[in-house]
Amino acid sequence: MSQAQNGQRMSGADIVLESLKRIGVNVVFGYPGGVVLPLYDRFPAHPEVRHILVRHEQGGGHAADGYARAAGRLGCALATSGPGATNLVTAITNAMMDSVPTLFVTGNVARNLLGKDGFQEADITGITTPIVKHNYLVMRAEDLAYTFSEAAYIATTGRPGPVHIDIPKDVFQEETAFVWPERVVIRGYDPSPQPGPAQIARAAAIIDAAERPIIIAGHGVILSGASAELRAFAEKTGTPVLNTLLGLGSIPTDHALAYGLLGMHGSYEANHAASTADVVIGIGNRMDDRALGRFADFNPTAQVVHIDIDPAEHGKNITTVAPIVGDAKLALAALTAAVAQRTHVPWIRWIDDLRAEHAHSMAIPSGPELSVQQVVSRISAVNADDTVIVTGVGQHQMWAAQHMRFTHPHQLITSGGLGTMGFEVPAALGAQVARPDAAVWSICGDGGFQMTLQELATMVDEQLPVKMAIMNNGYLGMVRQWQELFYKDNYVSVAMSQPDFVKLAEAYGIMGLRVTGPEQVDDAIRAANAHPGPVILDFQVQAEGNVWPMVPAGAALRETVEAPREQQEVAR
Amino acid sequence: MKHTMVALVEDRPGVLNRVASLFRRRGFNIDSLAVGTTEEAGISRMTIVVEDEGAGGIVDQVQRQLYKLIDVVRVEQLTSAEAVMRELALVKVRCTTEQRHALLDLVGIFRAHVVDVSPTTVVVEIVAAEERLSAFIANVEPYGVLELVRTGRIAMLRGERTTAQHPPVGEAEPDEVQRFHHESGRRPEGDLPYVSD
Ligand SMILES: Cc1ncc(C[n+]2csc(CCOP(=O)(O)OP(=O)(O)O)c2C)c(N)n1
Ligand SMILES: [Mg+2]
């Protein structure tokens, strides 16, 4: 591969592409337009950087996000000025909320036109400032190389996140010497991952004295590659592990200490264990309301130990007696070395008993109607363990989180913080680009699928064999559930007429399968896997299933509600 | 309660917007904001005064969020016990030649200065802590205040301590940077200030 020499003269466009190579970006999900033409003109000269033409910039942004999560490395999306750039906004916010290392590059109008409302100008750095980890408007070609290297450093270190670089058209055209910086030192940025020994010692003392400890493992465990350390720590201290939505996969579902999802749709036993514990150990999670319920009543008597690399997360929502500022992997290694070997047999038996008593609350419906729970658990059962699972947002997402098996970190790719419907198709596309040899199954909502289905064409162009399982309930199901439970069955704007998804698949030149009954499910999954290209599976599932258990918005975890209906009528 | 925060920031386009945005997002009204250069090239100093209406601790969290901004090098909350706090105001007062004597008396009492005189007006400059400044304004009110401008509070620690121990630009080794952040409270060892209660 050709490497530019330091000092070599080249255009801003060439510097951008050369810089992308240096920071390890070899795939860009992009969409062209006037001001980025000078950059597109130079793509052929840099074949190491693959450009994937998406069909909408939001799709490109989510694809970069899905790519980053599946690959565990920086994802990159590119758009033109004005509408191209504003179309990225949802995807950038999504990456910000879920701490995904991503780089968003936009073109802008030429420097002399900035701020004059010329054709397709948007103040895009003004727009993205509150939704990025950092952003830049690069006003000189000579600043490009440094900016890209700094951007990659910021996006991938500390608490990862999106970085946005906006480049006026004539900066792409300006010629200057290429100078790659030797290292990046930023005075106001300290991503040093090593936790302090005093914090470790303090936390260890609390953990050693615990009788009913619980771990809440979040996305940070996966982002820092700390799964092995998490297991070692949990095993040494005999502590059961709960997961936030984005933490699923950090410990295998079938590990003896794994108790699955907590929170709004967490299991009864997980929620009660979290609110009964005497020591709560949060690891790489942000103590979010969806996971912890009403903060004041989450677990007022527990002592909270919290490992997070972002100091602003400590004590944000709940009182924390032992904060550990640092990378989850390093912190867990240090903490494991510092704590005593323990077992908590009575405590675990208590949780197991709860689990047995309340197993009905998460039972998979066995009726003649197809249910989402059935479909997702069969997708898990039939597929290999390392299958990548992507989801949309809604009921199907929660059922996937509850009923699928997750054995690997980076296995579940879902929009947690922002809850972005429409994530499922483009993120799966990006994940398949990152993991060409893995099976990628996207669990799609019939609503969410229709938000970004234009990317089917991209999958066809790039021959990405994503399997898209649409959970066709004819409803914006999660919203319907809330209207049923909290608005007295008053269904407003939640029923949708659907296109014929099989015909739609055909229109795109994609294999389409319709599944109407439980007995067809396994065969359909196998048929999809046997097909070398993308597949759309239209699973016609029951229309009005509800996700249980549920912690109503604003309620405490210990107020977890189970079916049946009568008990669900909690006033809200 | 009013809080005085001092932020040392990289002198770059957009930095004011980033800082202000954090307060806007939480619905905080900024009482005053003074920005200027410092003893160090490339570093600006912002003095931000905000009212913390709700439960305490919100300002502490904002401080930590300010630290998340890449361009923010250091943030400190100063109290009037440990810091000198001043504000400058220019006041244009309606004042005839006959009234001038009495007004000058007031100016003297408040250790202010007259910086411009016309047959019908006087411009007074006053540097003071906020309360004294407000008292002065109240006293000249009967003359008729035609125009008033205040710079907003600026503050500096008394004695040896400073809010400016950052290493020189570009020469910082990663280790030093790390140590600096520990010392400045950005990544503290042990307890505080990340313990919330
Ligand atoms: C972009 C966006 N708009 C609106 C919402 C609010 N919302 C949350 S879940 C949901 C329904 C999702 O419907 P569908 O994709 O069919 O999934 P289901 O709940 O039926 O499984 C809606 C509208 C959202 N999360 N994202
Ligand atoms: Mg639906």
For the largest interface, the chains and their residue counts are: A-B, 33 and 41 residues
Shape of chain A: globular
**Strand residues, percent of chain A:** 15-25%
Structure annotation, total helices of chain B: 5
The percentage of residues in β strands of chain B lies in 25-35%
CATH topology of the largest domain in chain A: Rossmann fold
Per CATH, which architecture of the largest domain in chain B? 2-Layer Sandwich
Bound molecules: thiamine diphosphate, magnesium ion
Structural class of chain A: alpha/beta
Order of helices and strands of chain B: EHEEHEEHEEHEEH
Q: What's the Cα radius of gyration of chain A?
A: 24 Å
| First-residue to last-residue Cα separation of chain A | 61 Å
Low-confidence region ranges of chain B: 167-173, 184-197
Q: How many structural domains can be distinguished in the coordinates of chain B?
A: 2
CATH class (first level) name of the largest domain in chain B:
Alpha Beta
Question: What is the mean pLDDT of chain B?
Answer: 84
What does this structure look like?
The complex is a heterodimer of chains A (572) and B (197). Chain A is α/β, with parallel strands linked by helices and 572 residues long. Chain A folds into 3 domains: 169 residues, 3-Layer(aba) Sandwich (Rossmann fold); 162 residues, Rossmann fold (3-Layer(aba) Sandwich); 172 residues, Thiamin diphosphate (ThDP)-binding fold, Pyr/PP domains (Rossmann fold, 3-Layer(aba) Sandwich). Helix content of chain A is 36%, strand content 16%. Chain A contains 24 helices and 20 strands. Chain A has a 6-stranded parallel beta sheet with strand order 3-2-4-5-7-6, with helices on both faces. In chain A, strand 19, helix 23 and strand 20 form a beta-alpha-beta unit. Chain A is globular, with a radius of gyration of 24 Å. The C terminus of chain B is likely disordered. In chain B, the strands form 2 sheets. In chain B, strands 5, 6, 7, 8 and 9 form a 5-stranded antiparallel beta sheet that branches. Chain B has a 4-stranded antiparallel beta sheet with strand order 2-3-1-4, covered by helices on one side. Chain B has 5 helices and 9 strands, in the order βαββαββαββαββα. Chain B folds into 2 domains: 108 residues, Alpha-Beta Plaits (2-Layer Sandwich); 67 residues, Alpha-Beta Plaits (2-Layer Sandwich). The longest helix of chain B is centred in the first third of the chain and has 11 residues. Chain B is α+β, with helices and mostly antiparallel strands and 197 residues long. Classes of the chains: A alpha/beta (572), B alpha+beta (197). The interface between A and B is large, with 33 and 41 residues. Thiamine diphosphate binds next to helix 17, helix 19 and helix 21 of chain A. Magnesium ion binds next to helix 19 of chain A.
